[in-house]
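Tokens for chain A. Residues wanted.
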């Protein structure tokens, strides 16, 4: 059994990491969950995560947002500190919502959005979260709209149940295999995670 630390921006990203570990299997077990306080928190703690990864594998995921590319983001966060072999620093292009949309059939079944309306290459979108909300606002089931969208007149950017309802999708409907076919950053994350699992508990540096 290989223990694994995971670190994420929020509840939705944590659900995605849990699903990816479950999908990869390879004898991995999530020992500690960290983060859920935004990417600023992850950036501030990056040296602690790197230190931990010398003993126990760490899977950290953040959104690329509007930064040029993943190497630029990683260099900005880590500077001259090299990443140990067991530090899986993964970047969703451009937001984790792109990975959700990438399973077009699964998202359509869960949300009610017609599959032909869901972009075939969600990683090419500038703002996947906004696209997801736009699709739900126009085509989604009423029960999904109520949870995901902010109340009319509210200054909130997302609905109160946004993370809850989309995390349920990730746990019960989302197929990482199908999504990886349309999201290269997800496919590479799955590959790296399987490599860590195959190293076993003695693969740490």
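Reply:
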């Amino acid at each position: 059994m290989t223990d694994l630390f995971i670190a994420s921006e929020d509840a939705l990203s944590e659900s995605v990491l849990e699903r990816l570990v479950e999908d990869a299997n390879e004898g991995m077990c999530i020992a500690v969950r960290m983060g859920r306080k935004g990417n600023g928190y992850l950036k501030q703690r990056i040296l602690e995560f790197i230190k931990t990864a010398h003993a126990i594998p760490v899977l950290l995921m953040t959104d690329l947002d509007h930064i040029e590319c993943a190497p630029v983001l990683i260099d900005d966060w880590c500077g001259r500190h090299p990443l140990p072999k067991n530090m899986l620093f993964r970047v969703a292009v451009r937001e984790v919502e792109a990975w959700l949309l990438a399973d077009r059939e699964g998202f359509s079944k869960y949300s009610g959005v017609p599959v032909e309306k869901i972009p075939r290459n969600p990683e090419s979108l500038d703002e996947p979260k906004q696209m997801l909300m736009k699709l739900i606002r126009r085509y989604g089931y009423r029960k999904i709209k109520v949870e995901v969208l902010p109340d009319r007149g509210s200054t909130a950017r997302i609905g109160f149940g946004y993370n809850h309802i989309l995390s349920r999708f990730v746990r019960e409907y989302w197929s990482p295999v199908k999504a990886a076919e349309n999201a290269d950053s997800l496919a590479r994350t799955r590959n790296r995670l399987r490599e860590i699992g195959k190293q076993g508990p003695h693969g740490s540096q």
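The chain is about 50% helix and 15% strand. The radius of gyration is 17 Å.
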